[in-house]
Amino acid sequence: MKIHFYGSRGSIPSPLLLKNYRLKIKKILELYNQNREKGIDEFMKIIPFDLSHIYGGNTACTVIRDDEMPKDNHLIIDAGSGLRIFGNEFIGKNGSTFHIILSHFHWDHICGLPFFKPIYNPKNKVYFYSPFKDTLKNLRRQQHKAHFPMTFDNLPAEKEIIKLKENKVFNLLGFEIRPILLKHPGKCYAFILEGYNKKISYISDGEFTHDSIIDKEAFYKECFENSDAAIMDSQYHLIEFFNKFDWGHTSTNMVINLALDWQIKKLIMFHFDPDHSDEELIKILKEAKEQKDFLKKPPLEVFQAIEGTYIEV
Fold first, then answer.
1. Is 211 helix (H, G, I), strand (E, B) or coil?
2. How confident is the model at residue 70 (pLDDT cuts 50, 70, 90)?
3. Are both 230 and 114 inside the same structural domain?
4. Do 35 and 140 reside in the same domain of the chain?
5. Are 83 and 62 in contact (CB under 8 A)?
6. Which of 53, 148, 222, 305 is buried most deeply by CB count within 10 Å?
7. Are 281 and 237 in contact (CB under 8 A)?
């Protein structure tokens, strides 16, 4: 099973700025000057991670794939700006079915939908899954004629909205999926996906603090414990978080503590702050791993959701 990340930022798309791109190029050239004897392919192997990768600027869009899933069916969680990138893979293709699970309707989680090319193909089907009773209203509002030239109702693909029930399991593409309410302005839902001998927990846009979970600590542990992978909102480092109580997000320190307590196998930090540079995110990952090692609790692998990559579970 592979978890693909087409967008991992939170709040608003944040493309790499020219000044940051030029800085990366300058550092690569400086490194090359120290290694002129190496061929290009050999030199590429020694370029450090912060220069050879970018985290990406698209907002939340995660795709889960398994070889045993039904053919031409695609399981997507959230429709942020990364959904456009995913949709471009289907240009010129017909007859696909897309299953989009929506955690909530803040713009960074739905803004890719109007630019999702498969939904403009009448030979495709797109199903939306949400515990919110006003899902259709929210999707229509985003594409009101004052905001976008094509209304949601006029998108050519066959569309259907499936209303989910909080904390009730529903079956989809070989998974048993359970929506779990999180603390977030306007509400947001996590999703537990169990199938193909794996347990995946998607926990974006939730604010976990000691006070916020004191009454639900046992419940959350029962929900997310022993996940093979947990994709978790980790938008702020600890100092930032102190200035942003009730914004609906979690600090990386708290995420590490929870993942250890819940005995998660692979923690995938997600929903990065748009103002965090690649260099800052690398530092955050390093500090998170150091915190994990210091606590000396059950084994935990710590990753970050890098746009354009996947993590296998």
1. helix
2. very high
3. yes
4. no
5. no
6. 305
7. no
Element (H, E) at 31: helix 18-33
Same domain, 133 and 64: yes
pTM for the full model? 0.95
Do 125 and 240 have their domain in common? yes
The total of structural domains in the chain comes to 2
* Alpha carbons 202 and 17: distance in angstroms, whole number: 29
**Helix axes of 217-224 and 252-261: crossing angle, nearest 10 degrees:** 70
User: How does pLDDT run across 7-53, given as a tens digit for each residue?
Assistant: 999 999 999 999 999 999 999 999 999 999 899 999 999 999 889 99
Say whether both 127 and 68 belong to one domain.
Answer: yes
What's the rounded Cα separation, in Å, for the pair 86 and 250?
27
Mean pLDDT of the chain: 95
| Closest to 230 (Cα-Cα) out of 205, 276, 274, 262 | 262
Same domain, 179 and 208: yes
**Element (DSSP H or E) covering residue 224:** helix 217-224
Cα 303 to Cα 77, 147, 203, 223: the distances in Å are: 19, 37, 15, 21
Quote the domain boundaries for residue 23.
Answer: 18-50
DSSP-derived 3-state class of residue 294? helix
Give the tens place of pLDDT for each residue, 105-160.
Answer: 999 999 999 999 999 999 999 999 999 999 999 999 999 999 999 999 999 999 99
Distance CA 104, CA 75 (A): 17
Q: How far apart are CA 248 and CA 56, in angstroms?
A: 22
